[in-house]
Design brief:
single chain, serine/threonine-protein kinase, alpha/beta, 14-stranded mixed beta sheet, transmembrane helix, Leucine-rich repeat, LRR (right-handed beta-alpha superhelix)
Length: 946
Amino acid sequence: MGNMGHSMLDLVRCALGLWRKMGLWFCTCLLTVLFQFPLTLAITNDGDAAALRALSSNWEKKPFNWDGSDPCGSPWVGIGCTNSRVTSITLSSMGLKGTLPGDIQSLTELQTLDLSYNVGLGGNLPPSIGTLSNLTTLILVGCSFSGQIPDLGSLQQLVFLSLNSNQFTGVIPPSIGKLSKLYWLDLADNKLRGTIPVSSENSPGLDMLIHTKHFHFGKNQLSDSIPEQLFSSEMQLIHLLFDNNALSGSIPSTLGLVKTLEVIRLDRNSLIGHVPTNINNLTAVGELHLSDNKLTGPLPNLSGMNALSYVVVEYARIGNSLPQSLFTLPQLQTVRLRNNFLNGTLDLGTNYTSSLQLIDLQSNKIEGFLERKVFKNQLMLMGNPFCDQRGSNYNHCTTQPQSAASYSTPTPNCQQTDCSSDQNLSPNCKCAYPYVGTLYFRAPSFSDLGNSSRYQALEKQLLTTFQSHNADVDSVALHDSLINSDNYLQIDLQVFPAVKARFNQSDISVIGFILSNQTFKPPKYFGPFYFLGRVYNAAQDTSGSKFKNLPVIIGAFVGGLILVLIVIGLIAYAIGQKRKAERVVEQSQPFASWDGSKGSGGVPQLKGPRWFSFDEMKKSTNNFSEANDIGSGGYGKVYRGMLVTGQLVAIKRAQQGSVQGGLEFKTEIELLSRVHHKNLVALVGFCFDQGEQMLVYEYVPNGSLRESLSGKSGIHLDWRRRLQIALGTARGLAYLHELADPPIIHRDIKSNNILLDERLNAKVADFGLCKPMTDGQKDHITTQVKGTMGYLDPEYYMTQQLTDKSDVYGFGVLLLELITARRPIEKGRYIVREVRNLIDRKKDCYNLHGVLDPSMGLPSSLTGFEKFVDLAMQCVEESGAERPAMSQAVKEIEGIMLLAGMNPNAESAHTSASYEGTSKDHPMHPYGGDSFDYSAGVPSSKIEPK
């Protein structure tokens, strides 16, 4: 302390000298800084400092100030200390890359470890993490950890355990049952297998967790039955989430003993038998999901479940008639029981609850409907014998659009606010760099998903939570809410800084922890949630270490004063160079200088995709290395890349120096930014920088349908998978034709443009030739003929009149390609003509045995094959007027799948096959295939690269 005292006196003398020379103002500022200098220093425990340095050396990326010798005294970003001991590490969304080393066991006083939203963190969790006996909070959400979850049974203080959205395999460790203080247990969205562990004489189990409130195990691969022993009347469980697994057996009757339950999700499993009658004892349950199982028997009496607001039991095989008492539950909003065996006469009575918004009973066996009192909301009875008798014009037998989540925070009406291209405008009209991520609500209890007041309440609660915890937050914005394929409500979140334009890393640590450890509590009707944040490019914050070297700060202060004088001179110079500066700004904001002279039109109207710089693209593809080259086409080459967020993408790069294809480039950006559907390839962003044109798509891992049909991908497509692919393609096209605004004609439907994701779900790709239809063009668009030979609509070819039925023709050819695995034109034979000549509806398989792909399976196993061929031939009728609409095609394929015992709304199975290793063998990658311009008579890639 003696040396420190001399240093302080020297600084005071320096300040007095400066007072005389530079005046009162400067020294007042300097002394303010000076007397904030701490008189004592916190010294980090040697063992803790060594452990943190081991973490630092093990990570490729780390917080900016993790380079000093005193993590507690500096302090390091994300490190919390009590006296000299490290007690918390909170580093969410930092872009960390590497593994978690075993040295973490040295942090013996550690209570909180949160490394969420760092997708670059992976590998196995070290077993030594199970020795941190003081740990109360362990959160590793949205990383890439794999392998088995280690034994955590010694963490007796653990309250919060969240390992969801990783790649953990193996079984659920029975030792978790020892964690008697556990409140939150989330292992969802991994690859966990095996049974649900319960206790025995020699082993603990989850039934011992009587104080745990949350069991979140959805989106895994758990199998076997749910043990009766798992539940008891002592349990305080409120959320039971076992959806999206492979559980079998019956629903245990002991479930009815857990009277604290509020949310039950057992959907998307293989459960059998009756729903236990004592489920009626669960008076606090608000959401009940039992869909996509193999249940039998009647829906039990639910009249005692007074909190019930959301009942979903679809594709579950329940039967008998529905009691009136179901519809009198006071909180009930939604009843979805379609595709079951419900029968008898539907009688809602006269006392049904006023809160009831939707009753969906489609595709059952209901024979009558007694409407004692007019039901003014949605009642859907299509597909029942009752509607067959009454006709499709009857009020409840017509297709009614269901409400969809489509909320986004309204764009503020800001006057003269012009943000730079990489900033966003906040709801309070400030240009800033928001922290971005996605909220997933696993069981929302409301059906009016477009109700803006609910989302506004969510925004208010988010902002209140952030500000009450001293987070530097100005406002929040919600975007693109939708119900995803897991039946979760998904909403993109933007969090805007209050003081600065960009959060620093300490801010992100605070915000991320508020969301990862459930400090934020949404309005109750949103239900349980989790958040996946993206890596944030934070500003460097020197607040924690700015006094480590005060002379340096003083020098910086003086230098800053000189800099101010220089800036004043530069401003004067800049005024004289205004026009030149504006040209530079235009070059840095590429769409401000979009060149309309080359046929590209005006500035694209963007809704979602982000702009990437050329340097970002170069870095994500390792300088466009040959190892990342996954295909090529007329447009140029396609590269696999990884963004700084860890997201894999496919990048279409136009040929260097090309000035063609501007119209297609702009069209694809504008249209794909407006369309969002699970059967359409999503546009992540684009690059229009340094003379480059690139489109950045989501990476679809299993290549094109053409590759699978040809055998190049190694993926076996049986009949059921082909039906699923046909349905996904049809749904994507139906969305483009009927739900996109404006409607869109794809114009290049072919097997090279149908991609298969990890579950072999179809995604329609390549929108370079698509055409929007305005109100004045609903019948047709006159345009030059473009498309691919073999899939091209002959009516369009002859008349140049493009309609949505042109896509239907290409889809019909695709259906024939699915059953034959042949290209549309192969060895001079046209698949449509060949099938039309062979077809004989009086013979087995319509006499098409000679052209069928044998890998589909035996003809006897192709249930619904004839209906499939009929649909294909309707789609390739010469006249567009005789072809079905795509929505009709969707219904036909759904009907075929039901005949085959399939659930049209179920996901396809996982496959481990990938096209990465085979891309060099087939350079025509699906993201960049050639089409044909028939006005020129040469491949369009030669004159209009996409």
